């Protein structure tokens, strides 16, 4: 604190409007008006640290209650009359009346002398006006005797008001003063500790409390917070230290209380802030932090990004309106509000869906399309022909609403890859929607958004993924959709495939119509029969039969092996699979209509080879470097970076290098490698022969989702009460067939000369048990009729059925053989099993046109009209009864 100041008799006066500078307070002002600039220049700037000025409060016009405008004061001070003089009267404040009688300055009679702690002078450009910034410290009170003007600014004759040291010492002994100062200090201390808690400062203030005389502290404390002008004036006027102390205590105490009340209110309000409000506040803060960090991925930006995406999505006008409505709702929501996320995900979908984006369809070149189909697929001549026809129609009439192509056939015969070839030929994108196991209509049409976890149907989802509105969409396994309580997906598919309806396909989740008419649909199924007739009606079924072993061999050589090698990063330099080995894989490791398992087995071989190559690969580059070491360029490169490599290679001895070179000669698959990699053979030709080794066993041909299959039927008899036992997961139809077969055999017992002629009841004292092996697989259908009879005849006549003969056909109770389905697949299955003779219902012979001639050439087809024809062919040397009759 400054030492007692020597107050000069006259001070340059800086008027402060509605503001008081108290002793001990520090203030920073900027002087721009010519008057104040002059004052500062003459009284402070030129006198340097000796300069003092008087700060005199001036009342504002409104408070002055005077007539007219009161002269402006403060830094913008201007003078009315340069030579006026005012004698200070009895009143606390007095007026200077200007020229016009209307301009009045209402001066306060007491002021504070101040010195400059800091001065800075500036020149404004371009006017060249000088300005000052002054940091002033209030020093001591004075009273004004007389105000006059000197040049451009006021001066005043002043006299000091502060007590002298002896006077002060006297007061300090006054017990009232002591009590007052203690009280003040306590209040001040309290204020400091409250402020300390809030701002964690106050150390310095505490020091002040101990070092500065208490009457000065009173001024400093009061000056540190906001009080009214009147209160400031009364503080200035408290010349008596006791009065000053009690006033200051009152003001500090009031300030303290107001801080406490404010704190209480904040606490209360904070307590009432709900969790979400707090979160909101935190989020706001987080946003501010992110902004500061330039990290802009917050929600608001996301929403505007979403809006931009929506704008460029090309939605039709009505959908755009709908989307905007939803967006407005989203904007009003808080991110943590329930429903916000739903709404957002929904809008994202609207923005992502390809409303107009289409892959550009290039001019369809039928020749190129045919080449593409040929290069992708071996054989399938008819199928490819039909696809070309389909494409030709599209070329002539691009918006043609032809039937939807549906490829029907066992797995792995190329249905999916054909569909993707169509897409490639048309230059469109391809998307596959799997319908296998879809039982819920919502899978096709989506869930309404009111459901928890609702989402769009598979079609809309597929379109979002493929991001064009005109892809080739494969509805895979359309025969595997089922219906239950959750609706009927097939009926939803009807709408999808109907060109009249799919222009405005309504997905429940999307809730706005979507135009599917630009999509080219292709379907696949294993069987046509489970497809509901109305749906089948909209499709053109193209059947893909299984492949013969020769076809498989060619597919493997031309397509599968090159593809598999490529997928494993190999080439024929590394792995070669000779034709005989491919044949072995086909015969011994796969018994399927398609080529999927074949491809899998080839992939296993490629993997095994890849391991071997990769194992040795790290040696390869080294050996290359060794060869090139003679090149000076390389030598210099190795010199600084590849010393390790040089160390590893034994230069003199070529032993290790020769092992590297072994990789360069390809790995050729042989039988032992097949067994090592694929395991022991799973199938062989001898199977039927071995299984039909005893009487009572016959070979049937059945049709499954995996194509044709060979099905053995085993019958045996034992002591019993004449019952028929059936096992092997049989359906009702097949059980009935067994019943019919047994009845037929029993009714023909005498004719067939099974036993002694008199013995007419075949089942006298015995039960018959018929079993269909592969007991875990459910079986049904009428086509096992002839096979069942053959097994029973074989059992009762104790004659073995020919193991090279397989049969299929439904039989009536009277012994007529009726035609069955899936003949082509069954014949192919028989061929796979190496069966040489196939017994078919005579009326099925026409179906053989579809069977490759190579297959037909390799086997004997035996037509049967009646059961007797079957039996005639099934046994070595003809029907057993003939044999016995011959005897
Ligand atoms: P599907 O859809 O009928 O079950 P895929 O189309 O998935 O069968 O075919 C399985 C694999 O067999 C694919 O890699 C496919 O390229 C191949 N494939 C099937 N038929 C042929 C064929 N005729 N020519 C070449 N590759 C074929």
Question: Biggest sheet: strands side by side, in what order?
Answer: 1-3-7-8-9
User: What composes the largest sheet?
Assistant: 5 strands, mixed, barrel
Class per helix and strand makeup: alpha/beta
The helix fraction, in percent, is 40-55%
* Tally of helical segments: 34
Walk me through the structure.
- It is a single chain.
- The strands form 8 sheets. The protein has a 5-stranded mixed barrel with strand order 1-3-7-8-9. A 5-stranded parallel beta sheet has the order 11-12-15-10-16, with helices on both faces.
- The protein has 34 helices and 27 strands.
- The N and C termini lie far apart (146 Å).
- It is of the alpha/beta class and 887 residues long.
- It binds adenosine-5'-diphosphate.
- Adenosine-5'-diphosphate binds next to α15, α20 and α22.
Descriptors:
5-stranded mixed beta barrel; about 20% strand; rod-shaped; binds adenosine-5'-diphosphate; about 45% helix; alpha/beta; about 900 residues; 5-stranded parallel β-sheet
Summarize the structure.
The chain is an alpha/beta fold and 887 residues long. Helices cover 45% and strands 18% of the residues.
Write the layout of secondary structure elements.
Blueprint: E1 10-17, E2 26-31, H1 34-45, E3 53-58, H2 61-64, E4 85-87, E5 93-97, E6 104-108, E7 110-123, E8 130-150, E9 153-160, H3 165-172, H4 175-199, H5 203-211, H6 214-223, H7 229-237, H8 241-272, H9 275-293, H10 299-311, H11 317-332, H12 340-352, H13 366-376, H14 381-396, E10 404-408, H15 415-426, E11 430-434, H16 441-445, H17 458-466, E12 472-476, H18 489-497, E13 505-506, E14 513-514, E15 520-525, H19 533-537, E16 539-543, H20 549-567, E17 575-576, H21 579-589, H22 596-617, H23 619-628, H24 632-641, H25 643-648, H26 655-664, E18 667-668, H27 671-678, H28 686-691, E19 697-704, E20 707-719, E21 724-727, H29 732-747, E22 766-771, H30 785-797, E23 805-807, E24 810-811, E25 817-818, H31 823-832, E26 837-841, H32 853-857, E27 860-864, H33 867-874, H34 880-886
Parallel strand pairs: 1-3, 10-15, 10-16, 11-12, 12-15, 17-18, 21-22, 23-26, 26-27
Antiparallel strand pairs: 1-9, 2-8, 3-7, 4-8, 5-6, 7-8, 8-9, 13-14, 19-20, 20-22, 24-25
This protein binds adenosine-5'-diphosphate (ADP).
Adenosine-5'-diphosphate binds at residues 377-380, 411-417, 524, 555, 559, 594-596, 599.
């Amino acid at each position: 604190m400054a030492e007692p100041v020597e107050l000069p008799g006259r001070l340059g006066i800086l008027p402060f409007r509605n503001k008081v500078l108290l002793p001990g307070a520090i203030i920073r002002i900027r002087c721009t008006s010519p008057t104040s600039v002059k004052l500062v220049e003459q009284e402070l700037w030129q006198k340097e640290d000796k300069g003092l000025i008087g700060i005199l409060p001036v009342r504002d016009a409104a408070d002055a209650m005077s007539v007219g405008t009161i002269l402006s004061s403060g830094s913008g001070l201007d003078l009315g009359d340069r030579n006026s003089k005012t004698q200070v009267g009895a009143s606390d404040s007095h007026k200077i009346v200007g020229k016009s009688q209307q301009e009045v300055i209402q001066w306060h009679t007491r002021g504070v002398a101040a010195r400059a702690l800091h001065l800075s002078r500036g020149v404004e450009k371009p006017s060249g006006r000088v300005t000052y910034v002054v940091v002033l410290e209030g020093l001591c009170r004075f009273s004004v005797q007389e105000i006059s003007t000197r040049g451009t600014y006021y001066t005043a004759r002043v006299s000091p008001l502060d007590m002298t040291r002896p006077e002060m010492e006297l007061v300090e002994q006054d017990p009232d003063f002591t009590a007052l100062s203690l009280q003040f200090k306590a209040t001040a201390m309290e204020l400091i500790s409250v402020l300390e808690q809030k701002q964690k400062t106050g150390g310095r203030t505490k020091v002040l409390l101990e070092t500065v005389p208490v009457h000065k502290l009173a001024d400093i404390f009061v000056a540190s917070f906001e009080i009214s002008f009147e209160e400031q004036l009364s503080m200035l006027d408290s010349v008596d230290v006791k009065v000053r102390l009690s006033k200051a205590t009152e003001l500090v105490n009031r300030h303290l209380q107001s801080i406490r009340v404010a704190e209480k209110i904040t606490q209360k309000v904070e307590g009432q802030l709900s969790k979400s409000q707090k979160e909101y506040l935190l989020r706001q803060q987080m946003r501010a932090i992110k902004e500061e960090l330039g990290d802009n991925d917050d929600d608001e930006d996301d929403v505007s990004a979403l809006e931009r995406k929506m704008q460029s999505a090309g939605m039709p006008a009505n959908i755009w309106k709908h989307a905007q409505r939803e967006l407005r709702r989203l904007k009003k929501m808080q991110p943590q509000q329930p429903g916000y996320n739903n709404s957002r995900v929904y809008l994202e979908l609207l923005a992502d869906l390809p409303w107009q984006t289409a892959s550009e369809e290039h001019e369809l070149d039928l020749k190129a399309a045919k080449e593409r189909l040929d290069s992708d697929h071996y054989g399938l001549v008819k199928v490819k022909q039909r696809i070309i026809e389909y494409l030709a129609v599209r070329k002539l009439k691009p918006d043609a609403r032809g039937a939807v192509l549906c490829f029907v056939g066992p797995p792995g015969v190329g249905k999916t890859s054909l569909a993707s070839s169509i897409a490639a030929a048309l230059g469109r994108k391809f998307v596959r929607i799997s319908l296998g196991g879809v039982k819920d209509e919502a899978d096709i049409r989506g869930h309404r958004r009111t459901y928890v976890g609702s989402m769009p149907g598979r079609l809309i989802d597929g379109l979002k993924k493929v991001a064009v509105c005109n892809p080739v969409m494969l509805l895979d396994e359309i025969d595997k959709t089922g219906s239950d309580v959750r609706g009927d997906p097939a009926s939803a598919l009807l709408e999808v495939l109907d060109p009249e309806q799919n222009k405005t396909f309504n997905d429940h989740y999307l809730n706005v119509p979507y135009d599917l008419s630009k999509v080219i649909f292709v379907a696949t199924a294993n069987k046509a029969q489970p497809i509901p007739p109305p749906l089948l009606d909209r499709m053109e079924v193209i059947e893909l039969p299984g492949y013969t072993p020769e076809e498989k061999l060619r597919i493997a050589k031309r397509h599968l092996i090159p593809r598999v090698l490529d997928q494993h990063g190999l080439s024929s330099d590394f792995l070669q699979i000779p034709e005989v080995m491919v044949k072995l894989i086909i015969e011994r490791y796969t018994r399927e209509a398609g080529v999927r398992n074949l491809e899998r087995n080839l992939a296993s071989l490629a993997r095994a080879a890849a391991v071997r190559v990769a194992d040795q690969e790290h040696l390869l580059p080294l050996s290359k470097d060794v060869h090139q070491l003679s090149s000076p360029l390389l030598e210099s490169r190795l010199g600084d970076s590849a010393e390790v490599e040089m160390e590893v290679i034994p230069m003199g001895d070529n032993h290790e290098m020769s092992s590297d070179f072994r990789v360069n000669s390809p790995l050729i698959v042989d039988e032992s490698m097949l067994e090592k990699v694929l395991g022991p053979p799973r199938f062989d030709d001898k199977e039927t022969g071995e299984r039909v080794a005893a009487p009572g066993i016959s070979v049937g041909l059945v049709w499954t989702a995996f194509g044709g299959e060979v099905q053995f039927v085993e019958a045996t008899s034992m002591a019993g009460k004449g019952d028929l036992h059936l096992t092997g997961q049989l359906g009702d139809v097949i059980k009935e067939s067994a019943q019919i077969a047994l009845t037929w055999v029993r009714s023909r017992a005498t004719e067939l000369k099974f036993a002694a002629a008199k013995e007419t009841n075949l089942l006298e004292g015995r039960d018959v048990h018929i079993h269909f092996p592969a007991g875990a697989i459910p079986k049904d259908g009428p086509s096992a009729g002839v096979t069942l009879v053959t097994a029973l005849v074989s059992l009762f006549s104790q004659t073995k059925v020919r193991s090279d003969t397989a049969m299929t056909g439904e039989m009536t109770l009277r012994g007529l053989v009726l035609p069955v389905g899936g003949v082509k697949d069954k014949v192919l299955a028989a061929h796979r099993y190496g069966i040489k003779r196939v017994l078919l219902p005579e009326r099925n012979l026409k179906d053989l046109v579809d069977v490759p001639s190579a297959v037909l050439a390799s086997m004997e087809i035996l037509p049967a009209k009646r059961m007797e024809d079957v039996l005639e062919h099934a046994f070595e040397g003809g029907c057993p009864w003939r044999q016995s009759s011959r005897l």
